Amino acid sequence: MKIVKCLLIMVIVFLQGCASTATKYNTDLKLPQLMEWVVDPAADAIFDSVSWVSNESGVIEKSPKTDEEWDQLKSHAAILIESGNLLMLDGRALDKGDWFKFARALSVAGQKTLDSIIAHDKEELFNNGSMMDTVCENCHLKYAYPQ
User: Fold this and answer.
1) CA 14, 16, 21, 23: dihedral to nearest 10 degrees?
2) What is the enclosing helix (H) or strand (E) of 32?
3) pLDDT per residue over 50-108, tens digit each?
4) Chain center to CA of 88
5) The model's pTM
């Protein structure tokens, strides 16, 4: 019985120590700043990376050509993957329902975009960029645009 009490006291002390060392994240960068300075530039780089434009001369394709251009896009996709996490931090999250769903969807779209970048697959990059645009627009319809 003494051993059980001793173990119980040790567990309680341990759990109290865990509770008191919880990390406080710095969310001084407010949501509009995070969107304007971090998320939007990364998303725009992805959105602008692939296009096909038809004109009287034919179809003009824009897509990454060099390893350096593909590598730059990796950074933008990684920013978007992690931005989903940043949007769910206390102090930024507007709610834990749809807001979390949209933030997670941003991370998923970012990961799929990164996968297409690593594969140097411009069609999938375009498709995943479109999926990301849909995620962003749906979130903005609920939270950003005036009702």
Assistant:
1) 110
2) helix 31-34
3) 988 998 988 888 999 999 999 999 999 999 999 999 999 998 999 999 999 999 999 99
4) 10
5) 0.80
One-letter amino acid for residue 52 of the chain: W
In this structure, are residues 87 and 103 in contact, taking their beta carbons and an 8 Å threshold? yes
Which fold would CATH assign to domain 29-143? Answer: Four Helix Bundle (Hemerythrin (Met), subunit A) (1.20.120)
18: tokens are 């865990």
Q: Count CA atoms closer than 13 A to 54's CA, side-chain side.
A: 0
Over 55-116, what HEC string results?
A: ECCEEEEECCCCHHHHHHHHHHHHHHHHHHHHHCCCCCCCCCCHHHHHHHHHHHHHHHHHHH
